Amino acid sequence: MTDTDDFAGAPWDGSDPVRAHAETLVDWSARVESGDRVVIRVAEGAHDLAVAVAAVLGDRGATPVFVYDSGEVSRAYLRAAAAERLADPADGHAIALYESTDVVLSLGGTRNVAARADVPDATRQAHARGNAPIREARLGTDWVSTVHPTRALAQQAGMAYEAYQTFVYDAVLRDWQALAEEMAGIKTRLDSASELRLVDEDTDLTLDIADRVAVNSAASVAYDSHNLPSGEVFTAPRSADGVVTFDVPMTVEGRQVQDVTLRFEDGEVVEQLAGEGSEAIAAVLDTDNGARRLGELGIGTNEGITRPTDSILFDEKMAGTVHLALGRAYDACVPDGTGNESAVHVDLIRRMGEGSRLEVDGEPLQRAGAFVET
Amino acid sequence: MTDTDDFAGAPWDGSDPVRAHAETLVDWSARVESGDRVVIRVAEGAHDLAVAVAAVLGDRGATPVFVYDSGEVSRAYLRAAAAERLADPADGHAIALYESTDVVLSLGGTRNVAARADVPDATRQAHARGNAPIREARLGTDWVSTVHPTRALAQQAGMAYEAYQTFVYDAVLRDWQALAEEMAGIKTRLDSASELRLVDEDTDLTLDIADRVAVNSAASVAYDSHNLPSGEVFTAPRSADGVVTFDVPMTVEGRQVQDVTLRFEDGEVVEQLAGEGSEAIAAVLDTDNGARRLGELGIGTNEGITRPTDSILFDEKMAGTVHLALGRAYDACVPDGTGNESAVHVDLIRRMGEGSRLEVDGEPLQRAGAFVET
Predict the structure, then answer these.
(1) What is the rounded CA–CA span in Å between residue A360 and residue A370?
(2) Closest chain B residue to A134, measured at CA
(3) A101 touches chain B (CB under 8 A)
(4) What is the mean pLDDT of residues A133-148?
(5) Domain co-membership, B164 together with B208
(6) Is B51 helix (H, G, I), strand (E, B) or coil?
(7) Are A136 and A234 in the same domain?
(8) pLDDT tens-digit series, residues A7-36
């Protein structure tokens, strides 16, 4: 008798990871309530998640408007539009929409990560400037970004489609309440500390985090956390001194980047090296003055994310990793308004090695990527 | 030497019916100008047309918002939502969007004409009532509806996909200016007439059209015409007497209907017969008092539409056909506000036969489906 003989058929039990994803997004992440006005931004490949979200929103008594957020449509418009129109768009209708909206759910899921590869940089920048009022109106809502697994994203991750689907649902469908409680302790330690130190074979970096407020990023607007999946505790360093390396490969502005080393003095990058993509890092650093300083230190806590997939939404939350961002700080971390300002926010990620440690005010927080009980 | 030997290869000349469709929609139909705020409603299967429309709008200096108009998403929401929410939706954000919009372009193109087949009638009706303010806000703009050819629509038409694509572009890409000028003469004759009579083997119907205003439906908002393709001259009869038959098969409320005969007395249907779908017609007639009276008489003029495809957007414009609608009249035809009122507007179509004639005040307008020079 073989194993397969044991299976005598079974009626479908109704379990559906897409439905569970939609419920997690609507209920845990966005805290949608009856009567809420919701905008759902649907990427080209996110149709199935949009259908599931529509059913959950209907059940919860919310009223939806679905916006089509297609990279191909965006590329066509941006390449055809004049720069002066992009910089000064007649976008009152989009602003009116978002200003009268309670919740914005962004369902990522492209069919081609390179869909906008041939939009000139100057066009992107003009659009980013002109689009700022819409972005601000969106950020004024209870917004959450998530991703539906597509073949294009599986390809970007170097994974088979079925394996990538499993990866995404392992990352998204978690016991968020339990993780939120665990991360609350880490937040408390960071909030009361003045100094955080990263030490590993090739790294020794000291960060000044005095009087900054960490975010317990538990994938819910109730925690100032706007990503699903999430799973990180992050704060905004005031300054940095020492050397840090980042081994996790990623795509920055369309270019491959790996094994970046940065040396900081008085909070500023004074030297950079990269195994690959040094020019991309140099371009980031040259954006403005704030791009040479740190906007974020984050510690990944999502045990469902076990490998990088070249998607920052997932990679930076990987348990056993730490990330630092060059550029803009999040307001939530900086109650006194002295956070770093910049047009960019570029995250770089390192896995914490066997002999590594994270210390707060000289006391151990992590050893070898695992939190230490205090 | 065979025919294929003649073809020595040719570089692509850039002609693209999807691009031409988008240009016709934006320039001829909607008359979009620089600075216009445009909402584009994108059906699931209309992605390629949306990309082309985005490029044309960018070129013309308009600012777009793309709304995802998916039958599957709509079905999921409608089946899950409570009736009281549908009747009284928290839809201020949708109304804010449309009230600050100049032009609405609806790009049809479903992937399944039966996508909403299992939405209960009561749910549809509750939604239609609750959705009325959004619909009104949309109808307050320069709106145009068109269709991108999909395999689902080809299937509904009983046609191969490539043949259906050719059919759609033959209907959409026409010399609209020339047709508008031709139809202007027909409008003039209808506007000055008191009586219109349809006569054929199985039909003899007299319509009172005194003091009504015909629409020269030339597929442009400049002519009060909101469909692309269009190609019809229509007015709103005051009354009707006699018998009329409709041979063109169609789907009414999800049911096949064919060979309908209606007998009118004093403007009201007093008898109906159908080769198929008599129950569907009876259900329409029983909707309300206005459903037993006519809201429209239309004469198809689009020579590109050479066969019915079970899509009212195309069928009613077929050259050589006449259609009558039970129910609501269009405001544009009724300057004195005495038009027929009803919750329904159901078009029925007949091909005009070899011995048929259309007469206005006793003078010939058409013989055998062809206009008569005067």
Answers:
(1) 14
(2) B65
(3) yes
(4) 96
(5) no
(6) helix
(7) no
(8) 777 777 778 999 999 999 999 999 999 999
| Residue B40 included in any domain | yes
Give how many domains chain A has, as a whole number. Answer: 2
Q: Is B66 in CB contact (< 8 Å) with chain A?
A: yes
Distance from CA of A161 to the nearest CA of B (A): 23
Could you give the CA distance from residue B158 to residue B77 in angstroms, rounded to a whole number?
A: 30
Look up residue B5 and give its DSSP letter: G
Whether residues B240 and B343 share a domain: the answer is yes
pLDDT in tens, B128-172: 889 999 999 999 999 999 999 999 999 999 999 999 999 999 999
Span A202-221, average pLDDT = 96
Please count the residue pairs, one from chain A and one from chain B, whose beta carbons lie less than 8 angstroms apart.
152
Task: Indicate the residue of B59, B85, B98 with minimum beta-carbon distance to A80.
Answer: B59
Dihedral of CA atoms A317, A319, A320, A322 in degrees, nearest 10, equals 20
- Average pLDDT of every residue of chain A: 94
Give the structural domain span for B153: 17-172
Give the 3-state secondary structure of B282-327: HHHHCCCHHHHCEEEEEEECECCCCCCCCCHHHHCCECCEEEEEEE
Give per-residue pLDDT as tens, A251-268.
987 889 999 999 999 999
Considering only CB atoms, A97 lies closest to which of B54, B76, B93, namely B93
Same domain, B260 and B339: yes
Does one domain contain both B110 and B61? yes
Is the separation of the CB atoms in B309 and B249 below 8 Å?
A: no
pLDDT band at B9 (very low <50, low <70, confident <90, very high): confident
pLDDT on residue A224: 92
Given a contact cutoff of 8 angstroms between Cβ atoms, the answer to whether B147 and B313 are in contact is: yes
Q: Does residue A297 lie in a domain region?
A: yes
Which residue bears the tokens 């995802």? Answer: B68
Residues B129 and B203 in one domain: no
ipTM of the prediction: 0.92
- Give the domain-ending residue among A172, A188, A208: A172
